[in-house]
Amino acid sequence: MDKYGNYLFQAVYGVLRSTKDAEDVTQEALLKIYASLPQYRYQGFKTWLTRIAVNKAIDFKRSQDRKKEELTDDWEGHSPPEPLQSSPVETQVIRRERSTYVRERLDHLPENYRDVVVAFYIEEKSYQQIAEEQQVAIKTVESKLYRAKQYMRKVWKEEEWE
């Protein structure tokens, strides 16, 4: 353990990338190595130790992945709780406020982005229609929409939308 413990820890850490897990698995590997010493064939001791430790790490990682899958499978069967029902008036007010807020934000977009964003998202026009109206190539419309989205992500902060 004193001679190879740190070496085995490094090998296990390379697989798991977690200090805590690597410590636990290294300990398990050392116990497995000790129990397996009678089966050792006197060929490449360090390689044999490493192989046992890495296999333990791989097994551990697989078991962690299976646990995550089981948790996911358990949640997939459950439907989310029903949201609180809001009144139709409340829903309309929220929509109106959100729409007003979005329109105000759109007014602050650079004009070349605003035209494309409004045409595509608000007026629900196709790339082809926008390109024809603005007398540009379809790729230009795609590019402007992409740049507009990047601009909005950069300038508009996430917390303002919550």
Automatic annotation (TrEMBL):
Keywords of this entry: DNA-binding, Sigma factor, Transcription, Transcription regulation
GO BP: DNA-templated transcription initiation; response to stress
Family: Belongs to the sigma-70 factor family. ECF subfamily.
Keyword Glycoprotein: no
InterPro entries (UniProt xref): RNA_pol_sigma-70-like, RNA_pol_sigma-70_dom, RNA_pol_sigma70_ECF_CS, RNA_pol_sigma70_r2, RNA_pol_sigma70_r4_t2, RNA_pol_sigma_r2, RNA_pol_sigma_r3/r4-like, WH-like_DNA-bd_sf
GO molecular function terms listed in the Swiss-Prot or TrEMBL record: DNA binding; sigma factor activity
Start-end of Basic and acidic residues biased regions: 63-79
A Pfam family this chain is assigned to: Sigma70_r4_2
RNA polymerase sigma-70 region domain boundaries: 2-66
NCBIfam families recorded: sigma70-ECF
Disordered: annotated span: 63-90
PANTHER family reported for this sequence: RNA POLYMERASE ECF-TYPE SIGMA FACTO (PTHR43133), RNA POLYMERASE SIGMA FACTOR SIGV (PTHR43133:SF60)
Keyword hit for Cell cycle: no
Protein name: RNA polymerase sigma factor
Gene3D superfamilies, alphabetized: 1.10.1740.10, Winged helix-like DNA-binding domain superfamily/Winged helix DNA-binding domain
